[in-house]
Amino acid sequence: MENESNVYQRLAEQPEILYRIIKKLPTIAIVLDENQHVLVWNKQAEKEFGWMEEEVLQRPVPIVSGESEKQYARLLDKVKKTREVIEDQEMICQRKDGSFVYVSVSLAEANDKQGSVIYVCSMTNITKRKQDEIESQRQLKLAKKIQQSVLAQPVCNKQIAIDSLYIPSQELSGDMYTFYQMDEHRYGLIVIDVMGHGLSSALVSMSLRSLLRGLIVRARDPIVVFDELKKHMKNLFSESDGDLPHHFSAIYLVIDTKHRTIEYINAGHPPAMLLEDEAQAAVYLEEGGFVVGSAVDVPFTKGKISYSKRARIIMYTDGLLDSLSPSVTANLEKLERLMKKYHHCENEFFIQQLKHEIQTAATISDDICLVAVTLLNE
Least enclosed by CB within 10 Å: which of 158, 252, 289, 338? Predict the structure, then answer.
């Protein structure tokens, strides 16, 4: 198949045919001479920009100024050097009435039969698309702000210190964490990761978030909490909603600082880690069951562990693991090494060191949630 630049070249050698075609095109089309003065300005260009053809002939293109003029000059310069057809370059142009329009520009160089250089430029109005993109970004920014506004605040007393890290990706997601003090000695902490990304996952996450305070403080027991969350997901979605996120992974801990016990359920989530003073290795909190909403409807089992010394627990979403390296196993080992290295430091310092590892390791493609808990020996 003949490439586009050759087509332009053949048409340029027959300028009467080229100009006749351009004038009838339903899209914006402009032909410039080698000095970038207008030779042809079709009816669609008149309609879109407001200048009649007789107003612009033998004059520089009137629709570019400021930064747009520099961008247009760069495109022309690239075409001159490479003689390649440039396609779908976005820029802002100005109408005769002073208003602005977003356009997608394609540009090619050719020679007429006298050997003179001409430039053939076509444009498509993409203003509506760009306005939709800008509005979408505004809505995305607002949704992220709402998501972050409901994240739990740090807790610090003589028994326990709870801090957190949330690094948003470019997309909305269903990652979420929260924690509550149930009574004088007990605390409920949960990290949730709803399947997928985008608005639907974020809305499911916010729906779950609205339940959690009352559920955790009232129900307390991990099995009761997860049974209620499972029921909520069934009520939220019917079986016909096959294209919507139906399930989520989660890990929920009930920490009793008086009896020094931790009851928990891990529902298909990356394991939380507990490291006590002088321990050689971290304990992985993996007991629980499948993700909530799974087709495999198996009862959850509750794990229970005790601690006797100062200890740190970390809970997180898979975005943290993905950010460190491609290997999940290597990332778990790296997390454990970091826990050991900064075990005697405060949560905030540990989180800052971990954040440094994340930012130097990879581009963030998924939200990152981390909850760091220090169980004190007071």
Answer: 158
